Amino acid sequence: MDKRVHGKVDMEVWRTRGSCLHRSTRSGDGVHASIVITLLIGVWCAQALEVSVGKAGFVEVMNGSSVLLPCSYSSCIGIKNLYFNWKYNDNGTMDMLCEGVIPAEGLEPHVMITHERVMFVGSSKDSNISVLLWNVTFEDKGEYTCFARNPKEKNRNHSAVFNLIVVDQLKEVDNTLTLIIVSVIGGVIGLIIVVMVIKTVVIHFLSKNQEKNKECLVSSSGNDNTENGLSGSKADNKASPKA
User: Fold this and answer.
1) Where is the region Disordered (predicted)?
2) pTM score > 0.85 for this model?
3) CA distance 166 to 61
4) Domain check: are 127 and 199 in the same one?
5) How does the average pLDDT of the chain come out, rounded?
């Protein structure tokens, strides 16, 4: 009877362990699957279409001038029938400026202009879809959106906003501080040069004086030796006996 009870207990223990192992295996598989999905999403995002209007994202221009509205696109997996457009945000209403389609990489786009003062100046060879706005007025200030959609990436799209600021005249840059800094640096450099020249001249004269002193010492020591030799010879002559 005891053996049967122990056998049942052992079976229950093994079943419990097996279920725990099965659950841990399933949870481990779930973790691995989530990691793989995360990596795939990261790779997909890294290869996805991206539109850029530059680092600044804005420009300040004078009334009556022309301005470039920059925009470029990038995609690691390439493009096919890439659709793009430029729109102006007119107090909440998005006005179309131009739109076009790039059939493939290296092929120039088919562009339709819907604004009389807009000209397409981009090129698919440079992944550039910029436009030029002529004769800017104060009414042109505001946000301009560059949009692109790539069917090759399951119609993934991306957009970027460029802000245009129109002024009556450009602000003059105050260069006073720059001039002061340049003057101070120039003065310091000039002072260093003068000090180095004076140091070189002083060292030159000191070296010449040292050479003269050495020559004087050598000549004086030679004279002393000569005088000592002459006096010694005279003394020898006086001390020698007459024949």
Assistant:
1) 217-243
2) no
3) 5
4) no
5) 79
